[in-house]
Amino acid sequence: MRQFVAQKIDKVPPSGIRRFFDIAATMDDVISLGIGEPDFATPPAIVNAGVRSLEAGETHYTSNSGIRPLRLALSDHLERLYGLRYDPDTELLITVGVSEALYLALAATTDHGDEVIVPEPCFVSYNAEVIFAGGVPVNVRTSAQNDFQVLSPQIEEVMTDRTRTLLIGYPNNPTGAVMSRDRLLDVARLAREHDLLVISDEIYDRLVYGVEHTCFASLPDMRQRTVLLGGFSKSYAMTGWRIGYAAAPAEVLAAMRKVHQYTIMSAPTIAQYAAQEALEHGEEALQEMRARYDRRRRLIVDGLNSIGLTCFEPKGAFYAFPSIAATGMTDEEFSERLLQEERVACVPGTAFGASGAGHVRCSYATSYKQIEQALERLARFARRHG
Ligand SMILES: Cc1ncc(COP(=O)(O)O)c(C=O)c1O
Fold first, then answer.
1. Beta bridge partners of 345
2. Which residues line ligand 1 (CB under 6 A)?
3. pTM of the entire structure?
4. Rounded CA gap, 385 and 24, in Å?
5. Tens of pLDDT along 220-268?
6. What is the number of the ligand 1 atom nearest to the C-alpha of 317?
7. Fewest CB within a 10 Å sphere: which of 133, 158, 262, 319?
8. What are phi and psi of 68, to 5 degrees?
9. What is the pLDDT of residue 16?
C-alpha cells in the first residue's frame, strides 16, 4: 500500500512538550512548571457573559468575521492601546485562538516554496504551520547574550530571493523576551527595504513587567505590511474558550477570511460574547492576574539564579528560560532526570528550536507556593548535579 500521509505532514515532528506531560501524568506529586496556560480560571464576569449568551439562545453560527459588537470592541481596544484604527468590517477577523489566526495568515500569504523567516527559540507551532501552509521555515537563532531578541543583521543574513515573510512572536514563548522599540524599528526598516510581510504574534502583549509593549503594526509604515495576531487565552485566562483575532490590511484579511470561511466557518459563538465582555470590562481582572504573575516572576528568576541556573530576566509572558549548563546535562536529560528524581516538570529548550539547547522553560503560571516548592526541589537537584 502506498503511504497515505503527505510528506509535508510526515516531516513535522510531534510537539516536544506533550511527551513530558504524558510522563508526568503517570506520576504522583508532580509540580508542573511545564504548562503554557494560566492557572487562573476565567474571571467570573467573562464566564457569565458566555452563560448569558447561551441562555439567550445564541447557539448558532455567527458571521464569518465574528459578531460585530466584538469587532467594534476590538477596534476600539486596539486604538486605545496602540493608536491603531482597524475597520471592524474589513480589517478584523475573529478566529479559533491565535492558533487558527496564525495558520490563516500563513495559508493566505504563502505560495509553495516561499521562505518564512522565524526567529527561534519560538512557540512550537510556528515552523510546523509554515510547513503545513506549503512554505519553508528559515530559522534565525537568538541567544541570552542578546536577551533573546532578534537582530536585524541576523535576519538580513538568511534572506534569499524566496524570502516573503517574517514571523515574530514577542513577548516570547519560551524565553519571556520582549523586543525593545529600537530593535523593532531596525526590523521595520528591513521589512520596508525588502518588501516583507510581517506576521506578529502578540498574544502576550498585555503580560509585560516594567516595560512597555510595542505593537509592531504601530511602527511607521508597518500597518500596511503587518498581520497582527492577538488573543484572549493568556491575558484573560481563556485558553479553553478558543478565541483569538487577526488585524490586517483589507486585502490580506479578505484572503484569510476566505480560508477561515471554508475551513472553520465562525469562531465559537459563546466565546465571542465572553471575549466582548473581556475587552469591555476585563481590565481590572487582567491587571490583577498580571500583578500576581509579576510576583511569581521575581520569585522564580531570583530563585533560579541563586541555585546557579542562570536566568536572563524575562520581561514578558509567564516563562523563565534558565541555562542549565552548570549541571553539564543536555536540556532533555535535565528535564527527564528532574522529573524522575524530584518530580518537577519543565520543558527542554530544544522543544522550541535548536537554539534552545542548554535551557529549559519553566512556566510561572502556577501558584506562588508551588513555585517555592519547585525551587526547593530544583536546588536539591542542582546541588546533587552541580
Ligand atoms: C506564542 C503563542 N502564540 C499562540 C499560542 C496559541 O494560543 P491560542 O490559545 O490563542 O490558540 C500560544 C499558546 O501557547 C503561544 O504561546
1. 32
2. 36, 97-99, 123, 169, 173, 201, 203, 231, 233, 239, 244
3. 0.97
4. 21
5. 999 999 999 999 999 999 999 999 999 999 999 999 999 999 999 999 9
6. 16
7. 262
8. -65, -40
9. 67
